Each structure stands twice: as C-alpha cells, then as structure tokens.
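Lab notebook, design round three. We kept the backbone fixed and only want residue identities now. Task for the bench partner: fill in a sequence for the structure below.
Input structure tokens:
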C-alpha cells in the first residue's frame, strides 16, 4: 500500500524554523521530522511513499539524494577519486518525490499524484506530526467497514487548566482539562479509496473542507479512534516537547530499532 505524505506547506506558524527549511525537515533528535514518519510507517510494513513537495521542495530532494551520505560513514580517497561508504544504513523504501506546486492546497496536492496511486487503497497523512498509531489496525478497520474513507480521530491534550470559581470569585478548585471535554479532531492518517479523488476539483481544493464535508454528508467517512500518543509540530513549544521526549528515550512514536 502506498503512503502519500503531504510535505509542501509553508509552515508559517513555525517561521523561526521554516525560514531556512520546509517544515517536514525540521529536526527532532538530529533527524528530519519527515524521516521519523517514514521510519514509523516502514517499521509497520509500509515502505512505498509518494511525497508531495511544494515550499523548498528541493531541500527534501537533496536530502534523499544524499541519504547514504547522511546516514553512513564515508572515506574519500582524493588520490584515486573514489568514495567508499561503510557502516552503511540501507532501507527497504521506495520514495517518489513530486513537485505539486508552491501554492497548491492539500486536496490539490493529492489530486496531482493521482496517476501514481493506481486503483488501489492508499494511505495519506501530513508531514508535520508524529503518533504511535497502529497502522495495520487502521487499515484492517478501513477494509471492514467498506466505506471509501477513514480518518484517524484523536483527542489532543488540554493546554489550559480549568478554574472552578465561587460567586465571590474565590477559586474552589483547579483541575487539568480532561481530553474527553475537548472532543475528537482530525489526526491525519487517512486510508482512502481512489474514488475520493472525484471530490477534488483542483489545486485550490482544501482536502479538509469540501471533500471531507461531502464524504461525511454521504455517510462515507468513518473515524478510527486513536487514544494513544499524537503530536503535531506547529510551534517551537511543540518541537521542544518532542525533542525532550527523544532525548529522554521516551518517544512513543519511535517503534523502530
């Protein structure tokens, strides 16, 4: 099954990092966020990736073009002009990098890679977050319900505590906002049938709006509830959180060896 990764946005909310690199190439523990996602998928048996590029897409192309150099030790013999890699890291991946346009929206990016997906079920997610989702269970869930689209639903942690106040303004209690008061949101990690492409008009189509809304109205969108770890990277605070988890060897999404 192919995995489509949307990696072309500007990442304007994280401009401190994205002024010099695309958001999916922000590093966590010395590895690009995109690589974390790929290695997580690969460890679960998904090795065929189609990456939709846009903003600074050349950065991603250059990284994977030189992946052996990034991930291996190397000897340069200048007298003979030879280069030898050792302690080389090899992967089972097939990665297709596609320039889907600078200003193309999420739905438009998906539409642009339609010809590469054939007539088979495929997975799609974003290149700016990590999770410990059981992807095999997600795919099995999708196949069992028989609808054209599955979205992974997550409950983000509450950012603010809740104050319980008396009439005179005294604080009676303070408690962290529980996840079940926040509700379920789109956590990415879709499993889709090719028929969903019919709902995408063109480059200006935002996947999370008209296509998903129409699928929901037709009762063709089913949610796979994930109650484990899920974390997007939209701010420096969130990046630092992932860095801390990685440094402490407590990264839930790291299921590879």
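Proposed sequence:
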């Amino acid at each position: 099954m192919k995995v489509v990764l949307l990696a072309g946005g500007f990442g304007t909310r994280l401009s401190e990092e994205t002024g010099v690199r695309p958001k999916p190439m922000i590093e966590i523990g010395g590895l690009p966020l995109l690589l974390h996602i790929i290695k997580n998928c690969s460890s679960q048996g998904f090795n065929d990736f189609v990456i939709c590029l846009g903003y600074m897409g050349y950065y991603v192309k250059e990284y994977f073009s030189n992946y052996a150099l990034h991930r291996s030790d190397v000897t340069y013999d200048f007298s003979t002009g030879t280069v030898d890699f050792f302690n080389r890291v090899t992967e089972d991946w097939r990665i297709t990098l596609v320039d889907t346009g600078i200003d193309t929206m999420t739905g438009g990016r998906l539409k642009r890679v339609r010809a590469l997906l054939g007539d088979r079920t495929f997975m799609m997610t974003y290149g700016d977050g990590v999770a410990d989702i059981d992807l095999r269970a997600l795919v099995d869930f999708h196949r069992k319900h028989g609808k054209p689209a599955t979205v992974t639903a997550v409950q983000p942690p509450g950012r603010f505590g809740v104050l319980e106040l008396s009439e005179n303004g005294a604080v009676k209690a303070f408690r962290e906002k529980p996840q079940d008061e926040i509700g379920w949101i789109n956590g990415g990690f879709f499993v889709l049938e090719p028929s969903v492409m019919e709902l995408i008009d063109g480059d200006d189509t935002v996947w999370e709006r008209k296509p998903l809304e129409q699928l929901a109205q037709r009762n063709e969108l089913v949610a796979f509830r994930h109650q484990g770890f899920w974390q997007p990277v939209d701010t420096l605070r969130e990046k630092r959180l992932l860095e801390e988890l990685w440094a402490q060897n407590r990264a839930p999404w790291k299921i590879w060896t």
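Keep this in mind before ordering anything: The chain is about 30% helix and 25% strand.
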